[in-house]
């Protein structure tokens, strides 16, 4: 970042947030980071992930069409298939490497998100299932964290009063501060909550299947097995819950109501949302 500042007078913070977030989530998943923050450039794995992510909306909208298209001898489809295979190969190799190290020296092996699954033996997931889960965590935990942090920095820089309060609060931290100290910083956490509200990392629809017996909601009956979707953008901009919703205002969280906290779902809801939220805050703090 300093090199960019020296050469251009500006730095692309989004890029460096992506490097940091990716290194953290890869280490949490595979036990060893890529080290891309140190080197300052993307590796092939990240380039492949970004390329596939860019095609994700098309793939999810037209799954059958994409399945057929990948069999056509066209360069764009061949490269997509090759990128997907490279990701699978690296992930499988990383899982196998960690599994071997864990088996030979479990006390020295770094804790990962999937360590308990290795501990579970046959009762846990297969290596291929762990690989797929790790890939999903990397996709879900890299761009989302980087995007949120970029908006956070931008918003703080645009509000001098907020920046001053935040810097003052951070300067009062002890030299040996830890996660528990950061969680006690009222202004910092208000800034994070407001950024997640206005610039949700996952603003798209989150489909869920209604239980087989159906469900009653707000006076309506929803038949079982119906796929319903919610998305954060509308919920986070409800003026009845968040007055002046388009304004970035961390102070609104100083007396945040239960309704406000219930209405915010930047990573979705339920057990999956909780898992992603934990990963996000692990990266952030």
TrEMBL record:
GO terms for molecular function: heme binding; iron ion binding; monooxygenase activity; oxidoreductase activity, acting on paired donors, with incorporation or reduction of molecular oxygen. The keyword Oxidoreductase applies. InterPro entries: Cyt_P450, Cyt_P450_E_grp-I, Cyt_P450_sf, Cytochrome_P450_monoxygenase. It holds the Pfam family p450. Keywords: Heme, Iron, Metal-binding, Oxidoreductase. Belongs to the cytochrome P450 family. This is Uncharacterized protein. It comes from Fusarium oxysporum f. sp. raphani 54005.
């Amino acid at each position: 970042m300093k090199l960019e500042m020296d050469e251009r007078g500006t730095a692309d913070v989004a890029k460096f947030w992506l490097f940091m977030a990716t290194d953290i989530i890869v280490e949490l998943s595979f036990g060893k980071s890529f080290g891309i923050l140190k080197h300052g450039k993307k590796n092939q794995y990240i380039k492949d992930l970004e390329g596939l992510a860019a095609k994700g909306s098309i793939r999810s909208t037209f799954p059958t069409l994409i399945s057929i298209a990948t069999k056509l001898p066209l360069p764009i489809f061949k490269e997509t298939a090759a990128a997907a295979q490279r990701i699978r190969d690296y992930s499988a190799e990383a899982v196998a490497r960690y599994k071997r190290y864990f088996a030979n020296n479990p006390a020295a092996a770094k804790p990962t998100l999937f360590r308990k699954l290795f501990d579970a033996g046959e009762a846990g997931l297969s290596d291929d299932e762990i690989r797929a889960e790790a890939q999903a965590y990397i996709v879900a935990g890299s761009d989302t964290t980087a995007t949120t942090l970029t908006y956070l920095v931008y918003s703080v820089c645009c509000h001098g009063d907020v920046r001053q309060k935040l810097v003052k609060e951070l300067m009062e931290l002890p030299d040996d501060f830890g996660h528990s100290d950061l969680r006690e910083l009222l202004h910092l956490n208000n800034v994070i909550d407001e950024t997640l509200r206005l610039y949700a990392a996952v603003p798209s629809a989150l489909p869920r299947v209604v239980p087989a017996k159906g469900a009653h909601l707000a006076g309506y009956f929803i038949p079982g097995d119906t796929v319903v979707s919610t998305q954060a953008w509308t919920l986070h901009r409800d003026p009845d819950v968040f007055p002046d919703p388009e304004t970035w205002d961390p102070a609104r969280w100083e007396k945040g109501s239960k309704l406000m906290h219930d209405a915010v779902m930047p990573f979705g809801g339920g057990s999956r949302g909780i898992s992603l939220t934990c990963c996000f805050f692990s990266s952030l703090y």
